[in-house]
Every structure is written in C-alpha cells, then in structure tokens.
C-alpha cells in the first residue's frame, strides 16, 4: 500500500538524524564529551538545530550501543564504565582480536599492509601534533582495520563497538597514553604480520592489552560541563 504524503519510515527518520548521531558518537569516542557528562535534550536540540524529539531518538540509539545511559526522570549522560566493566571490555577485546589473528594472517595481502602503514603514519603525526582526538580515532581505526583483513564483517562490527567503549574506559580510568594506543606497539604488530610470524604477533597483541589494563589507575577527577553550542557549532540544522 502506498504511504500517504508526509509519512516517513523509522529508517528515514534515523537517516535524517545520522549526522547528529555521528557527531555525538565521535565527540564521546574522542573524549571531547567525557564520561559522566550530562546530555540535556534542550541544549543539544539548540546546538544541532533540531527538535527535542529528534535528539531523544539519537540518545536512544546511543544508549542501545552502551555509549550513554538514560536515567528515568533525570535525562541522559555519557556512560562511565566501572572497574569491572573496564576489565571485561579489554579482556573481551583480547579474546576476540587475538583469536582472530590466524584468519587475519591467512587473508593478509600487500595492500592490507600498505593500508595499515598509512594509518600508522597518520597516528604518528597526530601524536607529534599532540592532537589527542585524532590519535584516539586513528588508534581505534588501526585495530578495526587489522581485524577487517580477515573478511569477517560480524567480528569487525564487534571490534568497532568495543573500541568505542574502550575510549570511555581510558577516559575514566586515566591510562598514561590517553591519546590512543602507543605507536610503537602498533608498529611491532605490523612487523610481525608482514613477517608472517603468528605466535609473536599473538603474544604482542596480548601484551598490548595487558599493558593497557595494567596502566589503568581506577580513579578519575571530575569534569566541567561541556558547552554544547560551542562544541557542535558547525553541526547545526543547515548541514542536516
């Protein structure tokens, strides 16, 4: 049956708010919206130039992927993983990412290595510029692209989600390299992958996660409330 004029499907509504969803998700992952930050609907609606109903739908999507929590009668805030959840996230990443390395190795071709090298160079540049947001984004992209070599799209989606949640863990518990992972760790992984050395590659990735966990201080200072209008000044309705 043909839809009446003016009606829109749920998919179309999600698509129309996709730039807002991506802007908020990126700000959370890059730690420009710290864990625990309140996300008031009215302030966000003004910042993005959309309705509170639209903001509410975006917040529901972010809650579904565990990047924020919705508090009945108290609004939304950026998720703040506790110590147990922090450990579970990195233990799960180690299990999945290390366990997938035989498939990564079996499918790896020179263009894959070239793509990882390009990411590594961009990550080095971000560290040299002290661009924390870019370093965090590129660090996550490295892990995702490494696992994507296997061709397992379901696993790659899982790793993507877990790297996003990892950024919250590092923001909360204060790892020394808050600007993403350490570049030399990623360099070593690519070297082992290029050499076809699976056991050292697996050991190096496991140590990488062990070192991140060992670095977490499990304490966090308070954060000032964000200025949503300034933070998302270029993401208003004219771009949606």
UniProtKB/TrEMBL annotation:
The keyword Transcription regulation applies. InterPro entries: GntR_C, TF_FadR/GntR_C, Tscrpt_reg_HTH_GntR, WH-like_DNA-bd_sf, WH_DNA-bd_sf. Keywords: DNA-binding, Transcription, Transcription regulation. The keyword ATP-binding does not apply. It comes from the Bacteria. Pfam families: FCD, GntR. Residues 14-81 form the HTH gntR-type domain. PANTHER family: HTH-TYPE TRANSCRIPTIONAL REPRESSOR NANR, TRANSCRIPTIONAL REGULATOR, GNTR FAMILY. This is GntR family transcriptional regulator. It comes from Mixta calida. The lineage of its organism: Bacteria, Pseudomonadati, Pseudomonadota, Gammaproteobacteria, Enterobacterales.
């Amino acid at each position: 049956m043909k839809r009446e004029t003016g009606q829109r499907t749920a998919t179309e509504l999600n698509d129309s708010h996709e730039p807002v969803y991506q802007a908020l998700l990126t700000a959370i992952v890059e730690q420009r919206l710290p864990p625990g930050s309140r996300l008031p609907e009215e302030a966000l609606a003004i910042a993005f130039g959309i309705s509170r109903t639209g903001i509410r739908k975006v917040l529901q999507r972010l809650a579904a992927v565990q990047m924020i929590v919705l508090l009945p009668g108290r609004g939304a805030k950026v998720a703040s993983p506790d110590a147990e959840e922090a450990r579970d996230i990195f233990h799960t990443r180690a299990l999945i990412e290390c366990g997938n390395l035989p498939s990564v190795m079996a499918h790896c071709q020179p263009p894959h290595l070239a793509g990882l090298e390009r990411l590594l160079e961009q990550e080095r540049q971000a560290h040299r510029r002290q661009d924390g947001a870019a370093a965090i984004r590129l660090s996550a992209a490295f892990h995702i692209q490494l696992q994507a070599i296997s061709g397992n799209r379901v696993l790659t989606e899982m790793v993507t989600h877990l790297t996003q949640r990892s950024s919250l863990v590092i923001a909360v518990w204060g790892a020394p390299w808050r600007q993403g992972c350490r570049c030399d760790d990623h360099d070593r992984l690519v070297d082992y992958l290029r050499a076809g050395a699976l056991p050292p590659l697996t050991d190096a990735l496991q140590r990488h996660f062990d070192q991140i966990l060992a670095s977490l201080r499990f304490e966090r200072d308070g954060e000032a409330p964000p200025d949503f209008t300034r933070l998302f000044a270029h993401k208003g309705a004219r771009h949606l």
